[in-house]
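Support request, please re-run this one:
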Amino acid sequence: MPLPDSNIAQSEKDLPNEKSSQKFGTFLGVYTPSALTILGLIMYLRFGWVLGNLGLPLTILAVFLASSLTFVTGLSASALATNMKVGVGGEYFMVSRSLGIELGGAIGIPLFLCRTLSITFYSFGLSESILALNLGPGEALSPVMVQIVAAAFIVFTTAVSGRSASLALKMQIPIMIAVGVSLLALVLGVFSGGLHQPELSATYRTAPGGFWYVFAIFFPAVTGFTAGIGMSGDLKNPQKSIPRGTLLAVVTGVVVYTIVPFLLSYTNRMSPQELADSGLEAWTQVAVMGAWLVFPGLWGAILSSAFGSALGGPRVLQALASDGLAPRFMAKLSANGQPATATWISGAIAVTAVLLGGLNEVASFVSILFLTLYVTINLSAAFEKLAGDPSYRPRINVHWAISLLGSAGAIAMMFLISPVYCFAALVLELVIYSLVRRLAMRKRWGDVRAGLWLALTRFALLHLKKHEPDPRNWRPHILVFVGDLVKRISLVRLANWFNEDRGIVTVTRLVVGDLKNEVANVQKMHQEMERDLEDEGITAFSEVNIVQDFESGVVAVAQSNGIAGLHSNTVLFGWPGKRERLERLLRTTCSLAALGKNTIIARPRWSGEANRNQRIDIWWRGKQNNGDLMLLLTHLLTMNAEWSEAEVVIRSIVLNESSKIKREESLVQLIGETRIQAGYEVILKPEDQTVVEVIHSTSRRADVVFFGLMDPADGQESEVAERMEIMAKNLKTTIFVNCAVEFAGRLV
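Re-run finished. Output below.
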């Protein structure tokens, strides 16, 4: 049975209203816009200026710092993207679905402004480069004229992008060729014009603000990797295209930005002093054929970047409006599927931003806003990893420490670029978060230790209570029934492995008898259980319950166990020694299923810790929902150090060759969709063997064998119990799983 995608914790209503529009692949939809944005405005207009002020060593350091931060953020974004179906809104969508709508809104609004200001930023660059063609020697650009031309380009870009995303993206192929030709012209110009020793020390001739001032102006050059992420809603396969296209674009930028400063620093065609005063001249005076080969690449790259921002910004606003964080009319789409209303709002803001001044002023704003985005993306990936939800199974795994380091690095760079802007940006996002959240918190302080934990626990439970059960957050909260805890300690350890030390495990002992006669012994038995758990190093809650009879007692305890959103959802029994007790468990299973409680009947067969030579077999019939739960339990088991090296094999038996081919195809699809590392084997049943004989011969060496457990009809408990005993005979640890309802922890 194919599994629904579990980490997409959303329904169709969560997605923005999308009309039919053309979808794009990795190269055209992600890599090309990202690479062209990276190799664009700053590379042509400011790289010579950066080199002339910093010298070669500090320029390489600036490239390394900026590229390292973007690479780490690209990894974090890729991890998030490979763990969910990314909808419209790019980074906003990923953050809001990871950290919640409040933090999503706190970053989504600055992200929208960031994209919108980028339109102004690129239009300023295009305006400067075009007006520079009409300047004579020694003439300076008119700031007012630059602003007028930039505003005209913003209107043009907004109009085109509002009508057709396809046209804007398809223009990128010839633009990329033009950029490549300009880079080749620069290489040829350097080696044909003679070489000299590079300037190694920083001079800050035209950069009075020092290194971080220069860095702030350079930094937007490497932020282009987010251009492809912003087109998430227009991609055929965002989970595949975003990580591949993004990381490849980042690597491309690192390579080019490492080579270009060496070329400019060694060329004999311009001195370090001239570089410090230069803009586009750093290219036109060095490259072969000068402006003839440089300007097509420059204009194309800048225009492509402007279109990318004009496409990405409105889609963030569209997503915000769809989530109710902006007026709903802003999510309205045109007949061809474009967010026309959001596009024109973005264009109006971009035109207004022309009044900020020139290119350098806008660059500082863009740098700070992009860095706040990096902080949140990295925090999202780090918290997802630290939370350890079973649904978080990205195809690209990034250690939480790396993501946290990227977040800390982004905050540090914000502060070094401008403490005032850094503080203002953080305050802005906190204010937005508070407005979106619209919740006032009162702290109550009592005892420094107990009072704090009590307040935090109450706060957490109250908020957990408000959250509806969600597939991506589902994990087993296990109620384990034991008679003698010491004898059943392996069963409790199995529950802890399934729990992975994150959910709730409750170990309960049922005492059949009269409450008045037994109540005096309850406290003593409870203390013994606590001591036994502590001696074994197992973290679990324990309780003792007095019941009149076993079956009704199990149902009553299971029904009442838990608090707020932490009710037990899975009941675990050990393997009984007698047939009649197994039949009694099966009758109880039907009652538990009616309550929506999953049931596990396990026969652990290991002494102490599990052995290290492990294999886990899952026998898959493809029916009901038991397979979903078996797969999730197996995944959780392998997340523990004791089982991290276990080989997981999904096995299935079919009766004919055509069924075998179909079952193999479904298992391949299943493994790919669930992102669980597992092998598979489809066995064609020999005519001279029964199904049970095939299972025994195949799984006799497996350390753990999972089977689905059907709900027995009334009066059939004995027949099912006999079948279970036959199945478990001669096998090692055997686990029978009954999923009570349509699986709440779907493995998508």
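The longest helix spans residues 47-81. The first strand starts at residue 478 and ends at 482.
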